[in-house]
């Protein structure tokens, strides 16, 4: 299994594929009492049904927790048709490779499809915050030191992650992989972060004033210069909190830092904002990317500009975010077609 994962170079892809493989291995051992090499088509069909509704719930489903937590479970809920289809496609690829290695004779997932899946990978735009929710979240972050007991360096780093991630729409893997040397200024005095993104594709992301201001404040907090000419190009964009460390943080550490804040914020607002609190309990760092896209389009940014900044291969992917403001759409159509007045 490790050899198969090593074929995929990007850490994000390895994590996603490992999750699907581990889930299947656990299910095969715990529920079917057999090894991967003994799985049949009937098992694959049973696993497809299991993905939609993992049972028993207390054994398989639980809140997002660290892997070393006693509360960790393989699922946070049943998978949608799209997510189930993705899981089966990954497992199909795994078994094709196992056949090539002469570990398997047949692929039990061959021909196993998911009903209700359109076959088109659509983004889940519900995994993001409204503008009002984001303002509330950001206000809570401003009080981390004196209201919630965070150490100043940790609070400063968290605020930078919020502002910089939200302003740029970067993926978590791109945030932890960036260095100060990746930041460039062009002949028009525009600022860009150059990176290698998903699929090892080179690209660049515009750095708006919010991102640059957040960076300056964060660098000062780390005791670093805000002048690019004085930067060590190898300095990680996001630093470790360890004493005198020049290292960055890992993607797993970023996830834990953000989850700690989201869960704490959820507890604070539970009584007055239960809906937003529930969203925060489900949130991950990737929600900042979704919020970036939705808010940019709502504020008038061109679809092509948002597409290029997110580095989507197709504008159809980016256009999904145009449909997220359903309240505005409902009101505008309602105003255009008002009810008839009584004679």
Q: What secondary-structure arrangement, pairings included, does this model have?
A:
Layout: H1 2-6, H2 11-30, H3 41-52, H4 57-60, H5 81-100, H6 131-142, H7 144-148, H8 152-168, H9 172-177, E1 183-185, E2 191-196, E3 202-206, H10 209-221, H11 251-269, H12 274-282, H13 286-298, H14 303-310, H15 315-319, H16 326-336
Helix pairs in contact: 2-5, 8-10, 8-13, 11-12
Q: What would you call the structural class?
A: mainly alpha
Radius of gyration from the CA trace?
Answer: 23 Å
- How many domains is the backbone divided into? 2
> Would you report the number of β strands?
3
What is the top-level CATH class of the largest domain? Mainly Alpha
Strand order, sheet with most strands: 1-2-3
Number of helices: 16
Topology pattern, helix = H, strand = E: HHHHHHHHHEEEHHHHHHH
Helix proportion: 40-55%
Query: If classified by CATH, what would the architecture of the largest domain be?
Result: Orthogonal Bundle
Global outline: globular
- The rounded distance between the terminal residues' Cα atoms is 74 Å
Q: Give the uncertain stretches in residue-range form.
A: 119-123
CATH H-level superfamily of the largest domain: Intergrase catalytic core
CATH fold node name of the largest domain? hpI Integrase, Chain A
Structure report:
This protein has 16 helices and 3 strands. By secondary structure, it is mainly alpha-helical. The chain has 2 domains: 2-100, no CATH class; 131-329, Intergrase catalytic core (hpI Integrase, Chain A, Orthogonal Bundle), CATH 1.10.443.10. A 3-stranded antiparallel β-sheet has the order 1-2-3. Helix 11 runs antiparallel to helix 12 (274-282). The radius of gyration is 23 Å and the shape is globular. The N and C termini lie far apart (74 Å).
């Amino acid at each position: 299994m490790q050899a198969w994962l090593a074929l995929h170079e990007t850490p994000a892809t390895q994590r996603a594929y490992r999750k699907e493989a581990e889930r299947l291995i656990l299910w095969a051992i715990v529920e079917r009492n057999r090894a991967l090499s003994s799985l049949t088509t009937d098992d694959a069909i049973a696993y497809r049904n299991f993905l939609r509704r993992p049972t028993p719930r207390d054994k398989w489903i639980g809140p997002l927790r660290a892997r070393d937590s006693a509360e960790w479970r393989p699922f946070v809920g049943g998978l949608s048709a799209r997510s189930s289809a993705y899981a089966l496609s990954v497992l199909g690829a795994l078994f094709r490779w196992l056949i090539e290695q002469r570990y398997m004779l047949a692929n039990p997932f061959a021909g196993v499809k998911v009903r209700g899946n359109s076959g088109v990978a659509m983004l889940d735009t519900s995994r993001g915050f409204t503008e009002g929710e984001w303002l509330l979240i950001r206000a809570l972050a401003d009080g981390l030191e004196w209201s919630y007991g965070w150490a100043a360096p940790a609070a400063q780093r968290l605020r930078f992650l919020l502002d910089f991630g939200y302003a740029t729409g970067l993926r978590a893997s791109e945030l932890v992989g960036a260095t100060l040397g990746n930041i460039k200024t062009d002949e028009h005095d525009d600022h860009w972060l150059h990176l290698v993104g998903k699929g090892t594709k080179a690209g660049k992301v515009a750095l708006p004033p919010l991102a640059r201001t957040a960076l300056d404040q964060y660098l000062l907090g780390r005791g670093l210069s805000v002048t690019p000419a004085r930067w060590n190009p190898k300095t990680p964009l996001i630093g470790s909190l360890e004493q005198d460390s020049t290292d960055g943080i890992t993607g797993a550490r970023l996830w834990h830092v953000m989850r700690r804040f989201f869960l704490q914020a959820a507890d604070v607002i539970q009584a007055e904002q239960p809906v937003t609190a529930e969203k925060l309990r489900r949130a991950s760092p990737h929600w900042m990317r979704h919020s970036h896209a939705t808010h940019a389009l709502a504020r008038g940014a061109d679809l092509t500009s948002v597409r290029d900044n997110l580095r989507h291969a197709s504008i159809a992917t980016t256009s999904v975010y145009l449909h997220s403001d359903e309240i505005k759409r409902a009101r505008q159509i309602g105003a255009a077609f008002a009810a008839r007045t009584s004679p």
